[in-house]
Amino acid sequence: MSKKFYITTPIYYVNDVPHIGHAYTTIAADVAARYKRLGGHDVFFLTGTDEHGQKVQQAAIEAGKSPQDHVDSLYIRFKELWQKLNISHTDFIRTTEPRHKKVVQEILQDLHDRGEIYKDSYEGWYCMPDERFWTEKDLVDGNCPECGRKVEKIKEYNYFFKMGQHQDWLIEQIQSNEKFILPASRRNEVLGFLQKPLEDLCISRPKERLSWGIPLPFDDDYVTYVWFDALINYISVHGSLADVRASGYWPTSHHLIGKDILTTHAVYWSTMLKAMDLAVPDNIFAHGWWTVNGQKMSKSLRNVVEPNLLIEQFGVDVIRYFLLREVPFGLDGDFSHKALIGRINSDLANNLGNLVNRTLNMLGKYFKGIVPQPDAAGDEDALLKKKCSEVVGEVDKLFDELAFSKILMKIWELLDTSNQYINNTAPWNLAKSEEGKKRLATVMYNSAEAVRVIGILISPFMPETGDKIMAQLGIDTPVNQQGLDSLKQWGWIKAETQTHQGAQIFPRIDDPAAAKLLASIETGSEPEKTEPPEQITIEDVMKLDLRTAKILEAEKVKKSKKLIKLKVDLGNEQRQVLAGIAETYEPEQLIGRTVILVANLKPAKLMGLESQGMILAGSSGKKIVLAGFDEALDLGARVK
Ligand SMILES: [Zn+2]
Question: How far apart are the C-alpha atoms of 460 and 449, rounded to whole Å?
Answer without folding.
Answer: 18
